[in-house]
Design brief:
single chain; 444 residues; alpha+beta; Beta Polymerase, domain 2; Hydrophobic Seed Protein; globular
């Protein structure tokens, strides 16, 4: 097995071992190397106490990250390396962090406090992989399993419940039966966790390969952090175009979704307002205006989870627009790009593609073919260069005022009409051409 660690990690381990201490790469980086994935970063654990670690790296840039908890950060060739002393945790009083930690001389003690077996392995070139809890076997079995007693692990830090789901989604693993039962039992512990920490894990979960499967198996956990989903679970759409209930339709769409986190979050939330907008007649179930209610509920949920502004704005905009009529014509696509921007137009196409992939089978092919045509038009418009907008229109408000129009709402109306003329091909984006047309609108 080729276990290739970074030069900075090699150097840290070499310095510590050269001083007579044990030192290993530990945690997720070991898991990733075993799986043949490139680690995002390397964490180091050592038998050296924090002050001893600092002494080993005299002359380096040392940051006292958390001496109380045994952590020192050393900057090696511009790369920050986190080094933590072997430790065992004291009592957890808030389901988040230990009230105190105790340093130990045994690597096995340190590994025993970690969350899941796949994250409880250590590695050094000299010792190879140290696997006390069967992490390598669980990787082979594609299983997420708590280290030791699951209830204890989750009561120590309630966020581990969501981390288990996140790892199962990102790695496309299943969750061990006893660990899964404990997750269901202890899901209310998530109420003690900050919104910001929950959102980070939730977004990673949604973007993982196994997201739809995991969120289908742990509906109760999803609804614990986003109760707005509860009415969607099992809600019969009673509509000939749909073969799933509202929640399962959203998961099937998420399974088909391609794109960034904004696309995948929008796909997950796009129909969350359907139960609240349901009506029925002889033709079946209808959800008039559900896009607006879905956008409202999405915004409420993301604000509660303390989402950043760009994510909130982009996802809500995509949800609100996911059901809008969009003929595959150059005129309509130009208007969409003008109001939506090219990047979000492409995201909207991906949202609609995922949504339509989860409809009744006979509808999927023609709907996706229409979206292919819309995407082709977007590509054509992009190749032609900058699309006209009010910002780059050849005339501006001052030009309209010079034609005798008083400052106010009327100027904006005229400029928007001129922009429509350019977008629809009735006029070139040329100053004199647009001034002549503006005079016509003023005279009318």
């Amino acid at each position: 097995m080729n276990m290739k660690i970074s030069p900075a990690a090699e150097r840290v381990i070499g310095v510590l071992r050269g001083a007579g201490y044990e030192a290993f790469c530990v945690g997720g980086c070991v898991r990733d190397m075993i799986m043949g994935r490139e680690p995002n970063d390397f964490d180091i654990t050592t038998s050296a106490r924090p002050e001893q670690t600092k002494a080993c790296f005299h002359g380096f840039h040392v940051i006292e990250t958390g001496l109380k908890h045994g952590t020192v950060t050393v900057v090696i060739d511009g790369e920050p390396m986190e080094i933590t002393t072997y430790r065992v945790d004291g009592e957890y009083l808030d389901n988040r962090r230990p009230s105190e930690v105790f340093f130990t001389s045994r690597l096995e003690d340190d590994l025993s406090r970690r969350d899941f077996t796949v994250n409880a392995m250590a590695y050094s070139r000299e010792s190879g992989v140290v696997d006390v809890f069967g992490g390598r076997e669980d990787i082979e079995r594609k299983i997420i399993r708590a280290v030791g007693e699951p209830d204890r692990r989750f009561c120590e830090d309630g966020l581990r419940i969501l981390r288990a789901l996140r790892f199962a989604s990102v790695l496309d693993f299943s969750i061990d039966r006893e660990t899964a039962e404990s997750i269901h039992r202890n899901r209310a512990l998530l109420r003690n966790i900050s919104a910001e920490r929950i959102l980070v894990e939730f977004v990673k979960l949604v973007c993982g390969k196994g997201a739809a499967r995991v969120m289908g198996e742990f509906v109760d956990v999803v609804c614990e952090i986003i109760p707005e989903f509860e009415p969607s679970v099992g809600f019969d759409q009673r509509n000939p175009y749909h073969i799933y209930d509202v929640y399962m339709h959203s998961l099937r769409a998420l399974e088909a979704a391609q794109g960034d986190k904004y696309v995948k979050l929008a796909v997950l939330f796009h129909d969350i307002g359907k139960p609240g907008s349901f009506s029925e007649d002889e033709r079946g179930g209808h959800f008039y205006g559900h896009h607006a209610l879905s956008a409202e509920l999405t915004e409420r949920a993301l604000r509660r989870l303390k989402s950043d502004g760009k994510t909130l704005h982009t996802v809500v905009k995509l949800v609100n627009a996911h059901d809008r009529g969009l003929p595959p014509t150059e005129k309509s696509v130009r208007r969409l790009i003008c109001s939506f921007g090219e990047e979000d137009t492409r995201r909207l196409i991906q949202v609609r593609r995922a949504d339509n992939s989860a409809l009744v089978e006979w509808l999927v092919e023609p709907r996706l073919a229409e979206l292919d045509e819309i995407e082709r038009i977007v590509d054509k418009i992009h190749a032609e260069g900058e699309l006209p907008s009010l910002k780059n229109l050849a005339v501006h408000g001052d030009d309209i005022i010079k034609l005798g129009v008083s400052p106010g709402k009327r100027i904006g109306e005229i400029l928007n009409k001129l922009l429509d003329d350019v977008l629809d091909g009735r006029a070139l984006n040329d100053k004199q051409t647009l001034l002549d047309r503006a005079k016509q609108y003023i005279e009318k």
